[in-house]
Amino acid sequence: MNMEKNFEPQSFETSIYAEWEKNGYFTPEVDYSKPPFSIVIPPPNITGQLHMGHALNNTIQDIIVRHKRMQGYSTLWLPGTDHASIATEVKIVDKLREEGLEKEDIGREEFLKRAYEWKAAYGGRIVQQLRRLGCSLDWSREAFTMDERCSKAVREVFVNLYRKGLIYRGSRIINWCPHCRTALSDAEVEYEPQKSNLWHIRYPYADGSGYMVIATTRPETLLGDTAVAVNPKDSRYADKIGKMLKLPLTDREIPVIADDYVELDFGTGCVKITPAHDPNDFEVGLRHNLPVIRIMDDSGVINENGYAYKGLDRDEARKRIVSDLGEQGLMEKIEPYEHNVGVCYRCHSTVEPIVSKQWFVRMEPLAKPAIKVVRNKKISFIPERFEKIYFNWMENIRDWCVSRQLWWGHQIPAWYCEECGEVIVEKHDPEKCPKCGSVRLKRDEDVLDTWFSSALWPFSTLGYPDETEDLKYFYPTNLLVTAYDIIFFWVARMIFSGLEHMGEIPFPEVLIHGIVRDAEGRKMSKSLGNGIDPIMLIDKYGADALRFSLTTGVAPGSDIRFSEDKMEPSRNFLNKLWNASRYVLMNADGINLPEFGSFNYSSADKWILYKLNRTVKEVNAYLKKYELGMANAKLYDFIWSDFCDWYIELTKPALYGESVNEKARTLSVLMYVLKQILKLIHPFTPFITERIWKECGDVGAIMLETYPSYSKKFLFTAEFRRFEKVKDVIRSLRNVRAEMGVQPSKKIGVSVCGEAESYIRRNEVYLKKLAGVETISYVKSKADVSGKIVSIAMADGEIFIPLGDLVDFKKESERLEKELRSVENEIRRGEGMLSNAGFVAKAPEALVEQERRKLEENKLKREKLVKRIEDLK
RNA sequence: GGAGGCAUAGCUCAGCUGGGAGAGCGCUUGCCUUACAAGCAAGAUGUCAUAGGUUCAAGUCCUAUUGUCUCCACCA
Question: Whole-prediction pTM value?
Answer without folding.
Answer: 0.95
